[in-house]
Amino acid sequence: MKKTIYSKYDKSRIGTLPRVLFEGRIVVVLTERDAEKAVRYLLSQPILGVDTETRPSFKKGQAHQVALLQVSSYDVCFLFRLNQLGLSPSVKRLLEDTRVPKIGLSLRDDLLSLHKLGDFKAGYFIDLQDHVREIGVEDLSLQKLYANFFAQKISKREQLTNWEADILQDKQKLYAATDAWSCIMLYEELMRLEETGDYELIKVIDDVQRNSA
After folding, report:
1. Residue 211 above 50 pLDDT?
2. Buried b (16+ CB within 10 A) or exposed e, 172-211
3. How many Å apart are CA 200 and CA 183, to the nearest integer?
């Protein structure tokens, strides 16, 4: 039976879906010594999921620098606290690596934020948004994509919390790790569907399109 995928996903359905959470080990990285160990492990993996978090700003004209870089394998996610670590030599080596594919979503924004911490030449990054467009999916947020492809919900409850807090809460850690890890899951499912053609795309016409037709 072919998997059904929608060009646009009804956001109202997401709340009814079971929640998905990263079930692996989460490691917070605060020092260059720990970063070196983390990067050594990560670059030994076949594929990585990446994301960043920035402290939200609630004042017009105010902006914060990226505070967290989360990089996950299948079963371990490292949270690099960039507000304390900065763009350290090991973090830079990870970002410049050209061998291990690093999967993310809207990577242009993430890389621009990271470049504000220091200069580096981005290595092997793959943006999920480029691939889902190829098969006709128009809703590009991580939450909608995961719901569309796996019928599971990624909670965004912790997104607007303080990512520069002295100590990250367990809920924040789990949120950050889930976002990075889920990029691997989505990419591998996309590759499977593109290779097998084992899906049916349902073209959803919204009210704006309907009225202009």
Report:
1. no
2. bbbbbbbbbbbbbbbbebbeebeeeeebeeeeeeeeeeee
3. 22
pLDDT tens string 98-108: 999 999 999 99
d(CA 34, CA 16): 40
Q: In 3D, which of 66, 36, 71 has the Cα closest to residue 53?
A: 66
What is the amino acid identity at position 117?
L
CA distance 197 to 51: 28
Residues of the chain with pLDDT > 70, as a percent, come to 96
Element (H, E) at 199: strand 199-202
Cα 121 from chain centre: 20
Q: Is 101 exposed, middle or buried (0-12, 13-18, 19+ CB in 10 A)?
A: middle
Q: For residue 6, what are its two tokens?
A: 């929608």
Of 89-93, 106-110, 160-164, 180-184, the one with minimum mean pLDDT is 160-164
Tokens of 105: 């979503």
DSSP 55-119: ----STT----EEEEEEE-SSEEEEEEHHHH-S-HHHHHHHH-SSS-EEESSHHHHHHHHHTT--
39: CB partners within 8 A, 6+ apart: 90, 91, 93, 94
With cut-offs at 50, 70 and 90, classify the pLDDT of residue 29. very high
Residue with structure tokens 């890890």? 181
